[in-house]
Amino acid sequence: MKRVYTDYHELLSNPEVEAVSVTTMWDQHAAPTLAALQAGKHVFLEKPMASTVADCRAIVAAAHRSGRCFMVGHICRFNPRYAAAKREIEAGSVGRIVSIYARRNIPAAVGKQVLGKIGPIIGDGVHDTDLMLWYTGARIETAYAQTVDVRGLKHPDIGWTVYRFDSGAVGVCENVWFLPDKTAFQIDERMEIIGTEGAIHIHETHPNFSVVDKDGWRSPDTTYWPELHGVRAGALRAELDYFATCVSEGRSPTVIRPEESLAAVQACLAAEASAATGRVVRVEDVS
């Protein structure tokens, strides 16, 4: 590493820097992202895009003005199982989607590390909200959510969300950040897609590979960032490779577009608003 910066403005002023990755907390995404785009850099931004719809819209507009490659890291679109589901849906295998259920649950100890910064509905639910939008090709009209606060942390431990799409389909997201710490699941991740002509079931569930040694039992990741023959592999590498290829070839990323990432955030914020009020919230009213 040639240089280390403590001020991102100094980094952005370096003409040798062509692309940046913004991995700050979600409520600190907007300023460095907008500055990087203004400086003419290609930008890879971690999900969620931003913490407000207004910031998301500002980022989308800046990305289009910049003429540079911009992409939000919705890693699940690069998971081969979720990508395979998209291919089947596009091929008409299940007909018109009428119902989607997603589960993305993690141990309580892991949840405690991040619940001071972000809640489960936006923190993890944004993954499956994005997938639901991707698969249905529809808009989410309304959100109704309930949360459970078990430990009195800044954000609730559990969130359940029900979406209604303009296609008539219904979607349910289960996000529990309170699995027992002795659970076998590093993450309990599943999805069920029901259509008029068929169904798809995705089980990205630990432990799909486990090791018992003198120190006990462990289940290394085999999907998102595993090591393969001495190098990092998996969906994270595929995602970053895709972005780098778009940069090198001078083309805009199309696997995930800025407007799609905005839509996922807006729906999740509607769900959080619903949980706070106990009412059904129209997504278009969240601005």
From TrEMBL:
This is Oxidoreductase. Residues 4-74 form the Gfo/Idh/MocA-like oxidoreductase N-terminal domain. GO terms for molecular function: nucleotide binding. Residues 82-200 form the GFO/IDH/MocA-like oxidoreductase domain. It comes from Handelsmanbacteria sp. (strain RIFCSPLOWO2_12_FULL_64_10). Coiled coil: none annotated. It comes from the Bacteria.
